[in-house]
Every structure is written in C-alpha cells, then in structure tokens.
Amino acid sequence: MPEENPASAPQEWDVIVVGAGAVGENAADRAHKAGLTVAIIEKHLVGGECSFYACSPSKALLRPIHATRASQRVQGSEGAHLDPQGVLARRDTWVNRIGTSDRFDDSGQVGWLDHVGITLLRGVARLVGERTLEVDGRTIRARHAVILATGTTPTVPPIPGLREAKPWTNREATTSRRIPERLAILGGGVVACELAQVYAALGSMVTIIELTPRLLGANEAFAAEAVTEALRRDGVELLLETKAQSVSRLGPSGEVTVELSTGDRLTADELLVAIGRTPATEGLGVESVGGELNEAGFIRVTDAMEVTGVSGDQPWLYAVGDVNGKVLLTHMGKYQARAVGDLVGARAAGREPDPARTTPWAIAAGAPQVVFTDPEIASVGLSEAQARDRGLRARVVDMPMDSAAGAGLQAEGYQGQARIVVDEDAGVVLGATFVGQDVADLVHAATVAVVGKVPLTTLWHAVPSYPTMSEIWLRLLEEYGV
Ligand SMILES: Cc1cc2nc3c(=O)[nH]c(=O)nc-3n(C[C@H](O)[C@H](O)[C@H](O)COP(=O)(O)OP(=O)(O)OC[C@H]3O[C@@H](n4cnc5c(N)ncnc54)[C@H](O)[C@@H]3O)c2cc1C
Ligand SMILES: NC(=O)c1ccc[n+]([C@@H]2O[C@H](COP(=O)([O-])OP(=O)(O)OC[C@H]3O[C@@H](n4cnc5c(N)ncnc54)[C@H](O)[C@@H]3O)[C@@H](O)[C@H]2O)c1
After folding, report:
1. Domain enclosing residue 28, as ranges
2. Record's superkingdom (predicted)?
3. What is the 8-class DSSP label of residue 288?
4. Atom of ligand 2 nearest to the CA of 372
5. Is residue 253 part of a domain?
6. Is 276 annotated as a binding residue?
7. pTM of the complete model
8. Three-state DSSP class for 77?
9. What percentage of the chain has pLDDT greater than the value 70?
10. Is 149 in the same domain as 25?
11. What b/e string do you get for 173-188 counting C-beta neighbours within 10 Å, with b at 16 or more?
12. What pLDDT is stored for residue 4 in this prediction?
C-alpha cells in the first residue's frame, strides 16, 4: 500500500497511532494483527529515535570498540586495532545514511508498513476531540482507539548561554562524522557513559560533568563503580558533584567554555547535553481531551496504558513508550505496545480483555537493561535498597564473575562481578546485576527468574552449560546455600 495522498485518503481508521518509533510501529502492528485497520502518523523518520539517533547508532559505534578490546584480552589475538573511519562507516550503514549527506533512508521501515497494510501519514498530529486528530490541517478519526507513542526529546536545562552555544544532543553525538579534539559531556547517566567511551576510544579528550557524587545513579553502586574505573582508564576526566553555571561559545563554531560551580572553567570543542529526556507532548492536545500529565510532563496512564482523565464512554486514548515515562527503554515500550495492541483488538471485537495478556504487568518487577559500555552492566529487577524500600526481607549474594570457568575463557584475567537479591520469605530472585565483558545476554535468564518468580530450589535444576559464563548462576546459588 503506498503512502497516503492526503487529498484522496479515507478519513477514518479503526486505530490511529501517533509516532512511528519502534514503539508506535509495534502498537500498529499488533492492532493490525487483531484485524483492525490502522493508520500511523510520523513527522520525521519511521523508526524513530532508537533506529536513527539512539540505540542503533550508539551500539553500532560501541561494538567495534568492544570487539577490539575483547580480542586484545585473549592470548594469541592481541593484534586487533580500532579504525575510527571504519567505525563511523559501520555506524552509517546501520542507520541507513544516504551517502555523505545528513539524511537517513527509512524506506526499509516504510516498506514494512506497506507490506503489512498499515497506512502511513507523514505530518504532525494533534488531538482535537474524542477519537479525532488533526494532521497538518487535515482532520481524521479513529473508530476505536488512538495510541500515542510520541517519545521524548533531549532535556536542555536553562543554564545561561547553553542554548545559544548550540550544544550537541544525542542526535549530533550519534551522527557526527567529526571526532572533536575535546568533548565535554553534561550528565553522567547511560547516554553520557556510552558516548564518552565511544569518543574517548575514537580519540577525543572527554570530560564528564555530573551533578551527583557518582555516575550511573540508577545502577547498583558496585557496577557503576566498575564502569567509572574503566572510563578513568580510558582517559575520561570525571567532574562529579559539579554544576555547569554558564556556557559560552566563541563565534558560531568556536570552542565552548563552561563555567563550573567549583570556580574552574572547562574548554572544549563540543558540549554534549545528556541529562535525561523531556516527553514529546507539546502541542499534542492531550489535555484538550481531559488527559493528564504528571509533574515532569509525561502522560499519566493506568497499568493498562489508558490515558487517565480522558472523556468518553469507553477508554479510547492510550499512551505507550517513552512518552508515558514508565521506563525509557525500547524493549519495554514495545512490550507496552504489544499489550495495548491486544487490548484495543479485544475491546474492538467486544471481547472481555484478559489482563494477564493485555496489561504489561512485568514493568512492576523492574525492567531489564544493558549499559553497553566496556565493561557492560546487565541488570533486572530490584536492587537491595529497592527491595528493602518495598518492605521485603532481602539477602544479597555477590560472586566474582571469574568464579565461572566460562569467564576465564572469554578473557585472560577477566574482571567482573555478579549479584542477586533474594526474597528470603518467598525464596525467589528479586533482582540481578552483572558487570563485566560480554555479560549483556546473561540478563535474560535473570529476567525469566525474576518475572517468573522461579523458586531458587527450581533454578538449581536449570543447569548451565560448561564452560559458559552462565555458570555464574551455579556459583550464586551455591553461595546462597541452595
Ligand atoms: C543515545 C541513546 C541511546 C539509547 N540506547 C538504548 C538502548 O541501547 N536500548 C534501549 O532499550 N533503549 C535505548 N535508548 C532509549 C530508546 O531510544 C527509547 O526508549 C526509544 O526510542 C523510545 O521509543 P518511542 O517509540 O517511545 O519514542 P521515539 O523513538 O522517540 O519515537 C517517537 C516518534 O514519534 C514522532 N512524533 C513525535 N511527536 C509527533 C507528532 N505530534 N506527530 C507525529 N509524529 C510525532 C517522532 O518523530 C518519533 O519518530 C537510548 C536513548 C538514547 C538517547
Ligand atoms: N543502553 C541503554 O539501555 C540506554 C542507553 C542510553 C539511554 N538509555 C535511556 O535513555 C534515557 C536517557 O538517558 P540519559 O543518560 O540522558 O539520562 P539519565 O537519566 O540516565 O542520566 C542523567 C544524568 O544526568 C545527571 N544530571 C541531571 N541534571 C544535570 C545537570 N544539570 N548537570 C549535570 N548532570 C546532571 C543526573 O544526575 C544523571 O546522572 C535513560 O532513561 C535510559 O534509560 C538507555
């Protein structure tokens, strides 16, 4: 099906999805699979932030760095070296960049929409009434549901001179073909740590300015510390508990100077702002139909992703992915999208929805996440502190990763650490964190254990293969005393 020509398009679909990022695409797909007609509206690129400016380019940049270092850690293959131009070229391939331009080709994603029969409307959408939207002046209606998946934009704080200094956001940092000699980064979260490692490896002198006493505040301290040490070894300078007071740039493309709360000045060629995200709700009209936003501007939703406060006899407005602020991760947004697609499908067919399927209830267990630095951090569920805050009797079990034979095979002198947090009363794993080289894929076994509430006595019979890194599970359970 071709992209809709606004002049000849039908005015109504069963479901309208706003935002064709990874999350919107999944919501549209699931609703369409339920037998509904679906239109999806996108103002920029089909595939959204993740495909072009976030997950894909950053991971495409990080992988050669990981691969080179992994190779250098294995006796007999130490000769691997990084080719910065090759790294950038790989990134460009991953994001379907058009030649040497700054444009991207989303025809792969558009072709998929075409293939499955979902109508794409290009433009900016806003709610103007119950089940009614305006897209660049044209009014369209949904017979059953509108699903908002408009994502977020980078937060740029009101620091004097910052906006005028035209800082980099994740967009510039993931698309640049230039490696600045000096890169300053405001913020010390996931975006900052991953991109600091990229640019340091490609040759920049990187400085991180973080407000709080430590990097990666959302992660267990021991894991964040391992990444902090690695960044220091990479030559990244860390200014912790430091505020940027003002920013200025010399001319349109000259160096940037940051006045710091310590009284010092930091000069760099580019300044990347990575202090979190702002929901993309401006001009979306959520409140015009009674929808509520929270203090940070994210769209308030029920556990079933229905927008709260909305007028109408039946629920018809939903919000999924980053824009509801529940978990700012692609896979968790897509999970919400699948659930909502099924919910909308059931409601449209007049069936009683099955909450076990149509509510993304596992969000409450704690989302799996991988920080793709070297070392990686892979985590899921609750930290010890979070477990205790919930009034649970929690016990922490720690083991060095190299207690599993597979880790030693992975790299000479493997460095890493694993932790599980156990609910002493229920005898189940509440949370797990692994830090080390190549730990990313360990997190799925942990997610199965946490979400499935698998008793430790059953986990004992899930035998990991020898000699893999998964044997860390055996060591953790032995240490716990199963
Ligand atoms: C540098 C970086 C790296 C990341 N790496 C990872 C990672 O490795 N793994 C992971 O899980 N997450 C990662 N994330 C987070 C991930 O990118 C987001 O969770 C994800 O993109 C959210 O998807 P979404 O579809 O909700 O929103 P988005 O991807 O932001 O898509 C929203 C879409 O809606 C469109 N839109 C907005 N408003 C309108 C409107 N009014 N009308 C029409 N269209 C509109 C936008 O143009 C956009 O295409 C990363 C984020 C950053 C910044
Ligand atoms: N691998 C992944 O899964 C991945 C990678 C990148 C981003 N993401 C997602 O994207 C989201 C955004 O990431 P992010 O790194 O921008 O935000 P973040 O919330 O992870 O980290 C922001 C950091 O900036 C600090 N900060 C806040 N205001 C500051 C200020 N004025 N000056 C200095 N520091 C300040 C905070 O203390 C925090 O450490 C995250 O929620 C994350 O889930 C995920």
Report:
1. 12-51+96-153+278-363
2. Bacteria
3. G
4. 1
5. yes
6. yes
7. 0.97
8. coil
9. 98
10. yes
11. bbbbeebbebbbbbbb
12. 53
